[in-house]
Specification:
The chain is built from 6 helices and 24 strands. With 383 residues, it is mostly beta strands. β20 and β21 form a beta hairpin.
């Protein structure tokens, strides 16, 4: 500004600035509820579960109704990655380990699980509460914090019951919980199994186990492994697998292939199927897969880490220092990430080894826990 006059020269060659003018007529605007249904569905489908629950579903009635439809929930499950929920007895916040677009991701969940995670299915966790007169089961959705109490067990006077499992029956679209028990009215004690449909049954139903051998019935204890539509009871030193079809509620007995009976075995669920890893040596495992419908076993691959032993030892020296000697470590398989990555825990450390089956690459992750008493469960993050 010189002598009170402006020296500015405007781009359009005029000394007069351009001002936006409001157009006459109807103003076009986009309301969030006017978005096409397909676009809304796709947007919500790719949001994290906690963002949907805490924010997106509250945006408008249309979005709220969309996330509550069965089609949306099924699509979420189909697109969600199967990972491992890792829980430490000394920490209420578990870690979720998953495979996203070929990369392993680890996150500590925001919610707390005060009890011991027994099993989970499609993101629902089966937990328990100890009360004066017994143990009471309930399902927990960690994202929404919603709990659903299950009916008391068959009879507390004549039965002692072990751990339970939860699985999904796709055809009937129902969740079912299986519970094993031993009868106190007969000696020797007879082991059995009961089942109920979540949200439907008020009482437990006994599963017919008359077709099982005496050895097979003894496997009915502990936490079952869950795959798509099935429960599996196993015993590491045993040679049999018990499989309960969630739809038909029929239980069958399957033998482990010949030649593997005396070896150390690790039964792991991939979320979709049951696998068996047989230890051939300290760093070598054979991997078999069972077809749940028929009990047929097929050989998948061999996990051979013998040539990487020096790499293992060097990493643990750098990570753990002189506190843990590499020679004292026990490397044991603990789970799968989408059937592509085998997770092994180096006990008694908090280090997990990640082995990519196709590329044979390995990586190491250190878990953010203070206690090495770890529990590994197949898990999905659900809405």
């Amino acid at each position: 500004m010189v002598g009170g006059k402006s020296n500015c020269v405007y781009v359009n060659g005029s000394n007069r600035p351009y001002y936006h003018r409001r157009c006459k007529g109807k103003i076009s605007s986009t309301n969030i509820e006017s978005l096409p249904d397909e676009l809304v569905f796709d947007i919500l489908l790719h949001l994290p579960s906690e963002d949907i629950h805490r924010g997106a579903r509250l945006v408008c009635k249309k979005w709220y109704n969309t996330v509550r439809t069965r089609n949306f929930r099924c699509a979420r499950l189909r697109n969600s990655s199967v990972g491992l929920l890792i829980h430490s007895s000394g920490d209420e916040r578990p870690i979720f380990l998953t495979l996203e677009k070929g990369r392993v991701e680890m996150s500590k969940l925001s919610y707390k699980i005060p009890g011991r995670v027994w099993t989970s299915c499609n993101g629902l966790i089966l937990d328990y509460e100890v009360i004066r007169d017994g143990i009471y089961l309930f399902t927990l959705n960690p994202t929404t914090k919603r709990c659903f109490d299950l009916p008391p067990f068959i009879s507390r006077s004549d039965s002692s019951y072990d751990n339970s499992g939860i699985a999904y029956a796709a055809a009937s679209m129902e969740y079912k919980v299986a519970q094993t028990f031993s009868s106190r009215l007969r000696y020797p004690f007879v082991r059995g199994c009961a089942i109920l449909t979540v949200g439907v049954d008020k009482f437990w139903r006994r599963v017919d186990t008359e077709n099982l051998s005496l050895i097979g019935r003894e496997i009915l204890r502990g936490v079952p492994l869950t795959t798509e539509g099935y429960f599996h009871w196993t015993r590491r030193e045993g040679t049999r697998v018990l499989t309960l079809n969630v739809e038909t509620e029929i239980i069958t007995e399957t033998l482990v292939p010949n030649g593997y009976g005396e070896r150390t075995k690790y039964y792991l669920s991939t979320g979709r199927s049951l696998t068996l890893l047989i230890a051939c040596s300290e760093f070598l495992w054979e991997v078999l897969k069972m077809k749940s419908e028929t009990g047929e076993w097929t050989e998948l691959t061999k996990v051979d880490l013998k040539a990487r032993k020096c790499e293992f030892e060097q990493f643990f020296r750098e990570c753990c220092g002189p506190v843990v000697q590499p020679s004292s470590l026990v490397i044991k398989p603990v789970g799968w990430l989408d059937e592509e990555v085998l997770v092994l825990n180096a006990f008694p450390t908090l280090v997990c080894v990640l082995y990519k089956v196709r590329t044979r690459e390995i990586d190491f992750v250190e878990l953010d826990f203070d206690d090495d008493d770890l529990n590994f469960q197949v898990h999905r993050i659900r809405m």
